[in-house]
Amino acid sequence: MVFDLDDTLYLERDYVLSGLNAVGQWAAGALGINGLGEVMRGRFDAGCRTRIFDHSLKDMGLEAHPETIGRMLAAYRQHRPTIRLAPDTEQFLASRDDATGFAVITDGFLDAQRRKIRALGLYGRGIHLGICTDKWGRECWKPNPRAFEHVEQWFGRSGRDLTYVADNPSKDFNAPRLLGWNTVQIARPERIHVSVTTHVPADRIIESLEEL
After folding, report:
1. Is the pTM of this model over 0.85?
2. 192 with 16: CB under 8 angstroms?
């Protein structure tokens, strides 16, 4: 069984809020800007999903210089995330079948995704293989099939022997469906990506891993 990471095994909003808090702490120490973390969180809670750094700086009457934004991005991606598995994920992995292989395929910037995997302790919870697609370059992010083909080679299984559980039908299910895998969309009510304009649907939709 193969899982996506963000909004599948844990809530991605928790990572975002952890990162914004880290950027706020960095800004207070490095730039002497107090309260930026709270402003950014307010914007996020209000539904802002793009250019949150730029807009938050402007909210505070500050210039959003490219160099400053770059340093904020670095602080966000390189912070040690304060996140935890969703309760149903913890229960699912704790009761996993030892005869089943488990893997994770996740997009996103390599260092950030590796930090998430470490913070969640996935390798100590029965995940045998973790693939951060960015290690091969952005062109290998989903829907590129490379990671899925790697899983097939690593486990020596293919087709209906494999199941991919993920949240985002705009990119997650293209490759596994072409390869003949089972596909399951987990639509957590608190997920970030709720609406998508184009998508390849999964075979079934669930709201919790308890339904697997």
Report:
1. yes
2. yes
